């Protein structure tokens, strides 16, 4: 619900914190914290972000006389672990609760992966598909100026997220660099390689997820050469997940985007689908597969189901009907608490989001290190380091899950939260 002025125009969003996504993140944290027996003071301290900033600012349209006021956000969940790290999301549903949830998850994710960052996230409530390139550039540069005192290579390092990309990061880097008087490539990650971006960063989230799928498949006895996969979402994460699964011998039988789902029992021709997308921008109208709904896609019989789209996709309503052996989460927050319980009871193996999609922030860490050292790594070195960190985190999580008899999500949260709690205790309270 929004507050309206005397003209009936929406002015200030009401109950920004009242977000299903933030509630999910908090409940996940509280459940894991209880099992860990975390000090009550630390539990209360980590339940909300340490810093938040909301800004309303003008965005001039291509028609010079039109100026739209938009809402922007930057949230830093905890500063205990080092500088904060997190993406910037451009989406029409962005709000403080969503950004805070994503920042909290990023804290646990970085701690789980043993990265020297706290969690952060940013966003602007707009529909980027309705904006021209020049409008997006003006919006991005103004957003950067509004939050310029929050970000910095030793303070808070943004990265791409839904609705943003390497070009957006280049604009942020340039705007920040103009303010300090010299080039600062390490202020953002996920930027073009020519500006100091890392080899392999764009593919890292999908590649990292597939590294984990391979290890998980070995653990639960899935032969990937004879396995099938369903991918919900065909953006950066979903597309690369599908590609790397196909290279591993998995038959990708269904994918989807915002327009529709595509299903072919014999396997989809991903290269032909990519050609279709080049011409049409959506999967709608592709002739080489049957068109299905999102609900039908999620309930297809398969070995691996990878939700790589939006949050809250696996719920108590459809969890009883999933026909996969493994749920590999590329999206943030795709599974509800009630669904988690059902999946655990049904013995469906879950690669939780804070582990499954951690390849992106891990490769971002590599980029930040390369920029700081002013020394670029090869693609082989990036992928080798990514594989090592992802597999080690998977093994730590699996050991915790088996030792404490908890599901993989709870185990991953416990691994990350315990590390942050220990760091907070060691640093103490000032003054």
TrEMBL record:
Swiss-Prot/TrEMBL site (Important for catalysis) positions: 161
What's this chain's function? Answer: Catalyzes the reversible oxidative deamination of glutamate to alpha-ketoglutarate and ammonia.
Q: Is Nucleotide-binding set as a keyword in this record?
A: yes
Species of origin reads: SAR86 cluster bacterium
Protein residues bound to NAD(+)? 205, 236
Family affiliation = Belongs to the Glu/Leu/Phe/Val dehydrogenases family.
- Protein name listed in UniProt: Glutamate dehydrogenase
Q: Which PROSITE patterns match?
A: GLFV_DEHYDROGENASE
Quickly give the catalysed reaction.
Answer: L-glutamate + NADP(+) + H2O = 2-oxoglutarate + NH4(+) + NADPH + H(+)
Show the PANTHER family listed in the entry: GLUTAMATE DEHYDROGENASE, GLUTAMATE DEHYDROGENASE 1, MITOCHONDRIAL
- Any one Gene Ontology molecular-function term assigned to this protein's record: glutamate dehydrogenase (NAD+) activity
